[in-house]
UniProtKB/TrEMBL annotation:
It is a multi-pass membrane protein. The keyword Membrane applies. The lineage of its organism: Bacteria, Pseudomonadati, Bacteroidota, Flavobacteriia, Flavobacteriales. The chain crosses the membrane at residues 9-26, 46-68, 80-97, 132-150, 162-182, 214-237, 243-262, 292-316. It comes from the Bacteria. One of its GO terms (cellular component) is plasma membrane. It is found in: Cell membrane. This is Lysylphosphatidylglycerol synthase TM region. Keywords: Cell membrane, Membrane, Transmembrane, Transmembrane helix.
Length: 320
C-alpha cells in the first residue's frame, strides 16, 4: 500500500506542478496576449523545428554509441539498435515517472543483451557524471558572459542554502548506510554489497576504457547537438532570430535544469524559458511561445521514437 502511494505521488506531484505552472502563467495573460501567443504559433517556420528534432535524434543515437565504450571494458558489446531503443525508452519513461529512464535503460539492456543490471546502471551513472561535467563547463561559461543577470535569476528562484544543507545530510546518510552494509554480514547485506560493487564497476569503466577519445568525441557531440537543437529553434520565429548568443546559452542552461522539475519539463520548461528571456527584454508572450515550440518538438520526438522502440524491441530480439 505504501509503495503504491509513493509511486502515485512520484508521478502525480511533478505533473500537478506542471499543470499549476501552465495555469499560473496563462492566467496572467490578457485575451490580447493569448491571441499574440497563438499568432506566434501560427506563423512559426516549422522547417527549423524539424531540423532541431534531427539534432536531438542524432544526440540520442550518439549516446547509444557512447554507451558501448563503457560496457566494453566490462566484457559486453550490445547491438547499437538495442542501445538506441533502450535510450529512447528511457526518455519516454522520464515523461511518465521523472528520473526513471536510467533504470529502464538498465533493465532493457539486461533483458535483451544479458548485461547485469547493476553494471549497466553503473555505466549510466558514469555517463551522467561526464554529462554533468560538460554542463557545468557550459554553466560556468554562461555565468562568465552574463554574470549579473544569471546570478540574480538563480538566487531569486533557487533556495541554494537549503539545497546545500539537504545535500550534506544525504551524503552523511549515504555514507552511514554504506558503513552499515559493509560492517554487517548477512544475506541482505551481501546482496547489497554485490549490487553496489556492480554499480561501482560500471562507473569505473570510464577509467578502464581503451578508446577514451571516442568517448570524449561522442560526449562533446551530444552536447553540441543539444545546444544546436535549442539554437536552431530561434529561427522558427522572426522575432527571436536575432537573439544574442549569450541569451541563447543562458536560456539553454535554465531549460536543461527545469526538465528535472516536472515530467520531462511539462509546464516548467516554457514557464522558466519565458522568465529568463524576459530578463533580456524579450516579451513574456514571445518567450512563452518559443519555450512551448522547443518543448513540444522534443516531446513529440521522444514519444514517437520511445513508443516505436517499445514495439520494435521484442520484434528485433524475437530469436532471443
Amino acid at each position: 500500500m505504501k509503495i503504491n502511494i509513493k509511486k502515485t505521488l512520484s508521478i502525480s506531484l511533478p505533473l500537478l506542478l506542471g499543470v499549476f505552472l501552465i495555469w499560473y502563467s496563462y492566467n496572467k495573460f490578457s485575451e490580447e496576449q493569448l491571441r499574440e501567443i497563438q499568432h506566434y504559433f501560427s506563423n512559426a517556420n516549422y522547417r527549423f523545428v524539424l531540423i532541431s528534432v534531427l539534432c536531438g535524434f542524432l544526440s540520442h543515437l550518439s549516446r547509444a554509441y557512447r554507451w558501448n565504450y563503457m560496457l566494453k571494458p566490462l566484457g559486453y558489446k550490445p547491438k547499437i539498435a538495442n542501445n538506441t531503443m533502450a535510450v529512447f525508452v528511457g526518455y519516454i519513461m522520464n515523461l511518465v515517472i521523472p528520473r526513471s529512464g536510467e533504470f529502464s535503460r538498465a533493465l532493457i539492456i539486461n533483458k535483451y543483451e544479458d548485461v547485469p543490471y547493476d553494471k549497466a546502471l553503473g555505466t549510466i551513472i558514469g555517463e551522467r557524471v561526464a554529462d554533468m561535467l560538460i554542463l557545468l563547463i557550459i554553466v560556468a561559461s554562461a555565468f562568465f558572459i552574463q554574470l549579473d543577470v544569471l546570478k540574480d535569476f538563480v538566487l531569486s528562484i533557487v533556495p541554494i542554502k537549503n539545497i546545500l544543507i539537504l545535500l550534506f545530510i544525504l551524503i552523511l546518510l549515504g555514507l552511514a548506510f554504506l558503513w552499515f552494509v559493509y560492517k554487517t554480514n548477512n544475506v541482505l547485506s551481501n546482496k547489497i554489497r554485490g549490487f553496489v560493487t556492480g554499480i561501482f564497476d560500471g562507473i569505473l569503466s570510464i577509467i578502464k576504457m581503451k578508446n577514451k577519445w571516442g568517448f570524449i568525441f561522442h560526449t562533446l557531440f551530444i552536447w553540441v547537438m543539444y545546444v544546436a537543437m535549442f539554437y536552431i529553434n530561434i529561427y522558427a520565429l522572426p522575432e527571436t532570430s536575432n537573439m544574442a548568443a549569450g541569451t541563447v546559452i543562458s536560456a539553454f542552461i535554465v531549460g536543461s535544469f527545469t526538465i528535472a522539475f516536472t515530467n520531462g519539463g511539462f509546464g516548467s520548461y516554457p514557464f522558466f524559458i519565458s522568465k529568463i528571456l524576459a530578463l533580456f527584454s524579450i516579451p513574456l508572450t514571445l518567450g512563452t511561445a518559443f519555450g512551448w515550440i522547443v518543448w513540444i518538438a522534443q516531446f513529440v520526438m521522444m514519444v514517437f521514437f520511445g513508443a516505436l522502440s517499445l514495439i520494435l524491441l521484442p520484434i528485433y530480439n524475437r530469436n532471443k
